[in-house]
Amino acid sequence: MTTDFDQLTRDYYRQQQYQAGWFDLLSVMIDGMFSNAGDAESHAFLQQMGEQLAQRYPIATASTVAELELACNQHLARFQWGQVDIQPYENALVLTHYALPPGDGVMSSARWQNALSAVLQGVYAGWIRSQGGAADVALYAEATGREDMLRFRYQRS
User: Fold this and answer.
1) Model pTM?
2) Measuring CA to CA, which residue among 67, 75, 62, 70 is closest to residue 119?
3) Which of 18, 55, 109, 146 is 20 to 30 A from residue 100's alpha carbon, by CA?
4) Of 20, 150, 12, 134, which is closest to residue 85 (Cα–Cα)?
């Protein structure tokens, strides 16, 4: 159930995060890529682009999870992509990405969320590896049931 507050929040973020022209071009390109290359190939490509973005925007060395979260959020704020909450568990890190930029309303919200999930999966994996995270430990996407939130788990399988 969507409340008026939820809609107002989405509208606010859309105004903050939407840049006419650039956002439309990105939307058209992503939609075309998924239509022409398919889901698996598009997801792999976008994840790779996310990893390259993490290299282009490296985060500061962090010695605690709180410092890692802060370093990630500094870049996310620069991109106007929302923010991440990172929770450590005994054998995993759980990253919850809030205030995901909304789609343009033309591309399906599921496709938009899939695209951003792939990009952020690459970005977060790249940032975690830059802090000494093992390359053989995967960062998995988990369902949240929300259009404005993504969750990832960094854990050895």
Assistant:
1) 0.87
2) 75
3) 55
4) 150
Answer whether 119's CB lies under 8 Å from 53's CB. yes
Contact (CB, 8 A) for 51 and 125: yes
Q: Which of 59, 74, 57, 86 is nearest to 152 (CA)?
A: 86
What is the SS3 assignment for 130? helix
Strands (E), the chain: 83-89, 92-98, 138-142, 150-155
Q: Which residues pair with 155 in a beta bridge?
A: 138
SS3 22: helix
The tokens describing 10, both together, are 């989405």
- On whether the CB atoms of residues 86 and 93 are closer than 8 A, the answer is yes
> Which CATH number is correct for 4-155, 2.40.160.20, 3.30.1380.20, 3.40.228.10, 2.40.50.140?
3.30.1380.20
The Cα 20–Cα 128 span in angstroms is 32
Element at 152 (helix H, strand E):
strand 150-155
